[in-house]
Amino acid sequence: FVSPKIAFSRYQLCRAIGWEPDGRTYRRLEQSLDRIAGTTFKFKDAWWDNGEKEYKSKTFHLITDVEICSRDQLDRRRLTTGRNEQQLCSVRWGEVIWKSFQDGFIRTLDMRMFGRIAQGRRREVPLRLYRILDKRFWHAPVARFNLSRLCIGTIGLSPTYSPSHMKRILDRAAALEGEFGDLVV
Fold first, then answer.
1. Cα 33 from chain centroid?
2. 12: how many CB neighbours lie within 10 A of its CB?
3. pTM of the full predicted structure?
């Protein structure tokens, strides 16, 4: 994190996230980056400012601009420079998120595990559970949850589910996340 601007090639980014680098995927990648750039995040006394060690109200964008090179631009660059330079795309982190990174408020994800979890047919609950447990186990080796608050309020299960149904869903999700150890509900 030397600069808020990140340069990359579409090929590199596709490989990093496990997508096949082809025309359809490049279009999907561009649409995804456009969506992220266009999304506004709003936090009401819920954004942790690690530099000032307090919660604040913030409204911001994760990335402020996206530059994606076209095939024509890449071909022109290759003709003028004579090199196969690939890093013609970039994104720039928004000021608020960049400050948060600079203040050291960032977590790494085990992308291999995340990828394994994301391959399932019913992947939304395991992915949410992975992020929640990752965050909670960062603070302490044991995490305690109220079953209905975790399932309904955090993971997004239906409030009509019985406690036994919620436990079955959590057990199935936790089975995918074996590296967290045993999840006791």
1. 12
2. 14
3. 0.68
